[in-house]
Design brief:
By secondary structure, the protein is α+β, with helices and mostly antiparallel strands. The strands form 4 sheets. Strands 1, 2, 3, 4, 5, 8, 10 and 11 form an 8-stranded mixed beta sheet that branches. Strands 13-14-15-17-16 form a 5-stranded mixed beta sheet. The chain has a 4-stranded antiparallel beta sheet with strand order 6-7-12-9, with no helix packed on it. It is globular. Bound molecules: ligand BES and zinc ion.
């Protein structure tokens, strides 16, 4: 028994998936997908073979030769889901499982037409990271296992299917009025990187290897916002080496998407809150693109090592930004990240294991402890390495890291062993083991110096002494400077000051959601009622947890706004993604509202 991942029943001694075929039919009326998955193992196997499932119906199971495979579903566990135990006849290399999703399939979000930009057709999308792929099809749902796949997805006429894979055309479906879309994924991926979306979807080319997919109603805006991404891929290649996934396409999601972006290979998923109209939020694309190296090529072996995935990627994101916009831009982002990290430390409390880089997660749902720690503490750790050995040497190490581990999934210990080998003595010099295995932030954390940063800090600091910003003070500010300024102001300000800031700078109508949400949080904390209607507007259109969580939190912290929060949430609970709904319910429980 070799169960190395606390979030999977897979036992790699029983056999390892090499490739699979997905055959799915999407039923929008029933909100279910029906179909089959065929697993091809690296070697013939026999006897017990365990797979992960969650909220799936299993109708039957056969070998490639058609022999029935006895199977048994275990007890449902709230974190792991349900173990599917097969008894493989001797020499089984191909397994075909007939299955169907249910309304508890956590990877899937089924949207009513009103929740889309077009308003005419329903929409379906998946979000598999970290452990939700098992709610679409039975699989070895651990990032240790990588597989290639082909897929065919049947939908009613009028719908388009996209997947994080290479499109291979569409054919008439088995029933009249249906169409089957075909895909192949030639690069081996962990299960959490499987992804699909179905709806009214069109596309536009941005460069010879970059295309944007979106609902037709938002396609032009999206194409404009991300027009620079073709060049960005080239810039990233210059730093990290060749792009291994052939195409870098993007899908503009409907508003309920719970994340800012998801690095699904060949097809990054992006929240529509990035459509600021001034390209000021492209750092999220830089981040998801960077995962093409740090993540999709080299990922974490388990969620306990998640920081390897996100920490290196935030570092890589800021290197791309630095190359495109200069060191000031990267320093501003680092400062925003540092505030978020301190907030996460506050949320967990000093000494919490969730403030370590390597986090013990046995019996813990990774969705519940998702935080900025792996991102921003990880970023600081990688930056410390970079600064300690110098950029030139570090960039060479990063390239060898990617080269040595490409298309694998590694543990923290494997990474440390590699770094020790590449850079003898450096881990001890920087006290790497304290960074990785101890809570909190070590004293040698890198700091960022930039004149722009200092100007904003000074202006925010002068608030207490009566200084109110003039139009001149903020002339030429980037969105990041606004974000920092709003974060550095006192937690609460006077209502006249709220009115003044809004009047002078039009914050309530900012098209940049980072500015808008930070402003609304400040206004809500200040008990400023005129902010409620705009807040309602955000809470009833946006599903991104990064915004929902702090907004509801701020409302719940003010007794006079609790009833408002309750009313908005009750009206929205069935619209939010399961993950967002559960997270916000937790906030209400905690506040006793
Ligand atoms: N892979 C993550 C999103 C994720 C993490 C989904 C864990 C499910 C579980 C993605 O790359 C990400 O980090 N997105 C950030 C963007 C960012 C610029 C840090 C987000 O969604 O805000
Ligand atoms: Zn990420």
């Amino acid at each position: 028994m070799t169960r190395l991942d606390p979030h999977s029943y897979a036992d790699l001694d029983q056999g390892i998936t090499q490739s699979l075929t997905l055959m799915l039919r999407v039923d929008f009326e029933a909100k279910r997908m029906f179909g089959k998955v065929r697993l091809h193992l690296r070697q013939p196997s026999s006897g017990v073979f365990d797979l992960d499932t969650r909220a799936l119906e299993i109708a039957g199971c056969r070998t490639g030769g058609g022999a029935e495979i006895p199977f048994e579903l275990g007890q449902a566990d709230p974190i792991l889901g349900t173990r599917l135990r097969l008894q493989l006849p001797a020499g089984t290399q191909d397994i075909e499982i007939t299955c169907a999703t249910t309304d508890a399939s956590t990877a899937l979000d089924w949207l009513a037409p009103e929740q889309t930009a077009g308003g005419a057709l329903p929409y379906l999308y998946s979000q598999c990271q970290p452990h939700h792929a098992r709610s679409i099809f039975p699989c070895q749902d651990t990032p240790r296992v990588r597989f290639t796949y082909t897929a065919e997805v049947t939908v009613p006429d009028g719908f388009t299917v996209v997947m994080a894979a290479a499109p291979a055309g569409a054919t008439p479906g088995p029933e009249p009025g249906t169409q089957t879309f075909h895909f192949t994924m030639p690069q081996p991926i962990p299960s959490y990187l499987t992804a699909l979306a179905v709806g009214s979807i069109a596309s536009k080319d941005i460069s010879d290897r970059v295309r944007i997919y979106a609902e037709p109603e938002v396609l032009d805006r999206a194409a404009w916002e991300f027009a620079g991404v073709g060049d960005m891929v080239g810039v990233a290649e210059g730093i990290f080496g060749p792009y291994e996934w052939e195409r870098y396409d993007m899908l503009m999601m409907p508003f309920s998407f719970p994340y800012g972006g998801m690095e699904n290979p060949r097809l990054t998923f992006l929240t529509p809150t990035l459509l600021a109209g001034d390209r000021s939020l492209v750092n999220v694309v830089a981040h998801e693109l960077a995962h093409s190296w740090t993540g999709n090529l080299v990922t974490n072996a388990t969620m306990e090592d998640f920081w390897i995935n996100e920490g290196f990627t935030v570092w890589a994101e800021r290197r791309i930004l630095e190359a495109l916009e200069g060191p000031d831009a990267a320093a501003l982002h680092a400062a925003i990240g540092r505030i978020a990290l301190d907030e996460a430390f506050e949320r967990f409390g000093t000494g919490s294991p969730y403030t370590q880089l390597k986090t013990p997660l046995d019996g813990v749902d990774p969705d519940e402890v998702y935080s900025e720690v792996p991102y921003e503490k990880g970023f600081l750790f990688v930056t410390l390495l970079e600064r300690t050995v110098g950029r030139q040497q570090w960039d060479a190490v990063i390239k060898r890291y990617i080269d040595e581990f490409r298309f694998t999934s590694i543990t923290t210990e494997e990474l440390l062993e590699f770094l020790d080998r590449e850079l003898p003595g450096v881990l001890d010099t920087i006290q790497a083991r304290q960074w990785v295995y101890k809570p909190g932030l070590p004293a040698n954390a890198p700091v960022f110096v930039s004149q722009r940063l200092e100007n904003v800090r000074a202006l925010a600091g002068a608030w207490e002494h009566g200084k109110r910003p003039s139009l001149e003070d903020v002339a030429g500010w980037k969105a990041e400077e606004w974000q920092l300024y709003l974060k550095w102001l006192p937690r609460e300000i006077a209502h006249e000051d709220c009115a003044l800031l809004d009047r002078r700078f039009g914050l309530m109508s900012s098209g940049n959601y980072e500015i808008l949400v930070n402003w609304l949080i400040l206004a809500i904390r200040s008990g400023y009622e005129p902010a409620l209607e705009r807040t309602r507007g955000v809470l009833t259109t946006v599903g991104r947890m990064k915004y929902l969580r702090p907004l509801y939190q701020a409302l719940l912290a003010r007794p006079e706004f609790q009833a408002f929060a309750r009313e908005v949430f009750d009206g929205m609970r069935d619209r939010y993604h399961t993950l967002s709904r559960v997270t916000i319910e937790g906030l209400f429980d905690k506040a006793g509202v």
